[in-house]
Design brief:
With about 180 residues, the chain is mainly α. Helices cover about 55% and strands about 10% of the residues. Helix 7 links the parallel strand 3 and strand 4.
Length: about 180
């Protein structure tokens, strides 16, 4: 395996901290005792930050915005039911599995009208939410100010095995490998 270039002494952004935590948690069947230890310890170190950085915790939805979402859901269900009282649904394949969703064209004229009416009624709550999300996204792109420890191993300690998907492993573990 060719050693990729590692950027030296660069602080991670808040988004990279969240991504690193998620990528390390999603790794399955990682070869190598030292690498597994480094992954486990790094996950432990990042977990409190990942929980604290959760969007719903940092910028909870206002009661007015929750009302808007509920009204919009009811409007969509009404459109999907076609007046029968029971909304039509369909199964959709997502990265995390199958989910049931309303069988509705959200870009259809009826849905657009319902959405426009509610957006006018809840315009202040929607703008506040958009502003909060913009601030959160800006914050995600800033350097992480919180302390955490990335447990590292040397490149030579990376497992060398032909059956391992090294691209996925390396993408997730690049921050765990020390410069030599």
């Amino acid at each position: 395996m060719k050693k990729p270039e590692i950027k030296k002494d660069r602080k991670l952004t808040n988004l990279e901290v969240l991504q690193l935590h998620a990528e390390l948690r999603n790794l399955k069947s990682v070869p190598g005792l030292k690498l597994n230890y480094a992954i486990s310890r790094t996950i432990q170190s990042l977990k409190p930050l990942a929980e604290a950085y959760d969007q719903e915790k940092l910028i909870p939805k206002s009661e007015q915005f929750k009302k808007y979402e509920e009204e919009l859901r009811k409007a969509y269900e009404g459109i999907a039911s076609g007046g029968s009282g029971k909304p039509k649904t369909r199964m959709v394949q997502t990265p995390t599995g199958e989910i049931e969703t309303l069988d509705i064209d959200i870009n259809g004229e009826e849905a657009k009208q319902a959405r426009a009416k509610l957006q006018e009624e809840y315009s202040v709550a929607i703008e506040e939410r958009k502003s909060d999300v913009r601030e959160y996204n800006d914050w995600l792109n800033q350097e992480c100010e919180d302390e955490f420890r990335i447990h590292k191993i040397s490149f030579s300690e990376m497992p060398q095995n032909e059956t391992t998907d090294y691209k996925a492993l390396w993408d997730a573990c690049i921050h765990l490998v020390e410069n030599e």
